Amino acid sequence: MHRPVAAAAAFLALSLSLPLAAQWDEFPPLSPGAAAAPKAEGPRPLEMSGQLAPPQCPQAAYTFTYKVVFPQGFDGGPVDAAILVRARAFHEESKETWETDYASSQGACDRVAPPHRTVSGTPFRASPKLAGVMWGWEEFYGGNHPGWGYVSQNMTAEDGTELTLGRLFPNFRDSLFQLWGIVYRGFCSQGKDTTPSFYGSQPCRKRPPRAPEQLSEPGNTLDAAGHAILSPQGLHFHLDPYEGYFWADGPKFLDIPKEKLLEIGADRLLLP
Fold this sequence. Notes:
Blueprint: E1 44-52, E2 62-70, H1 78-103, E3 116-121, E4 124-127, E5 130-140, E6 147-156, H2 165-168, H3 172-188, H4 213-216, E7 229-231, E8 234-239, E9 252-257, H5 258-263
Parallel strand pairs: 2-3
Antiparallel strand pairs: 1-2, 3-5, 4-5, 5-6, 7-8, 8-9
């Protein structure tokens, strides 16, 4: 789910008041900063869905669905456009997965259930200067069970750019050790002998080891740091099954309250 995908340069304005069905080549090209939609009262849903079938067995069609519900107050500015760019990235990634892992497979016709992917998200205002979306995704390409999890998107309200660790913590090197200590001890307190696999399955000890790359690079987005979403309550980490421990353990979560973020050096002007 996390391979970077470049957005197309051109943009096609969308009316989000009506569902939109799209095939791969019909998905509108999007770019950050463009006006995503006219202003509208109330929630504005955008739903894109369709099917593709391997030529050798049309009955084994791959179904994809993407849904975004823009609440009232999202007025078609750069944040809306950035959200649609992310939807475009999900779409292109699904296309690549379908083409490389499914459509070309000779065993595609023998699968018990046809493959599918569903992605949905509802944007919200984290503060006057920030907006966010916690995307939920679920997919099945064969195997013992479907895959599912989260992708976070935190944006500045001014231009829709992705929020990074270095932007959230201006004196990042001073905040790094404290941030990693909170994350390390928080996950270790959940009853396991190691940190989640997302952070390298490091042994739980009294003193935290060196911070992993996900949390030690100021240019990393909050998604890269642990699918973290910034809300009025603080910073909330979501780790998908297998990013935590075993599938049976399910997802893992961790909350850092707003007051603690400020204590370790978060930008006060960004927080609500």
